[in-house]
Amino acid sequence: MEHYERDGFVNAGTIFGPSEVDALRDELERYVDAAFRDTDSHLTLPKGAREITVVPGKSVKQFVNLWEVSPTFRRVVEDSRIAERAAELARSHTLQVWSDQVQYKAEHSGGAMTWHQDYLYWTPISPPIMLTAWIALDDADENNGCMWMVPGSHRWGGALDALIERQKITDVAGFRETPAWAPPGGSSGWVAPRPCPVRAGEVHFHHCMT
Q1: Burial (0-12, 13-18, 19+ Cβ within 10 Å), 9
Q2: What does the alpha-carbon distance between residue 39 and residue 44 come to, in Å, rounded to a whole number?
Q3: CATH number (domain holding residue 160)
Q4: N or C: which end of the chain has fewer CB within 10 A?
């Protein structure tokens, strides 16, 4: 909780074991087959199944609310191991799911996600107190595309203008050298972006304004 409140993110460690990760991978592949490869057409697809890449020649396939059609992913959304940790970090006894989101990046052709704050996609909810639990189904580090985060940025409020200016940054060198932007009160609060590696089965939490 100390790390989360200071930085706006924290790796909660391994929550899902190898067999659970394998089951989720297998289930996800079935839906990728049905939505993008036309090889498993009997599945009911979630409403949100689309390609969202912003990098030419690359691919990021996304599912939203897969839990509504997949019992395997529904069990993840309802998993008490995640809920208990999320409630503790949120300092709340009650949680409600806004949505789930799966991003699928094929080997060697996966595209980058650009700088963003989750809350800018969730503005119907107020105040901005939500958090995301990122469940890794593969190991991710700097070499194959882990997330990068700006420590302490969850306390700065909306940063849409600064994020838009940095939309063209799509590689590790660019993330590492991302130009600073001034948080409220001056640039002294800036902390350089930090890579957030995860291993398969780990759950990484981050605040919606990080």
Answers
A1: buried
A2: 13
A3: 2.60.120.620
A4: N
Alpha-carbon distances, residue 189 vs 43, 131, 162 (angstroms)? 49, 22, 15
**Exposed/middle/buried for 194, CB within 10 Å: 0-12, 13-18, 19+?**
middle
- CA-CA distances (angstroms) from residue 81 to 75, 78, 87, 207? 11, 9, 10, 18
- The number of distinct structural domains making up the chain is 1
What pLDDT was estimated at residue 53?
Answer: 85
The domain in which residue 194 lies consists of: 2-207
- The token pair at 163 is 């994020």
Q: What average pLDDT score do residues 124-146 get?
A: 92
Give the pLDDT confidence of 64-109 residue by residue, as tens digits.
999 999 999 999 999 999 999 999 999 999 999 999 999 999 888 8
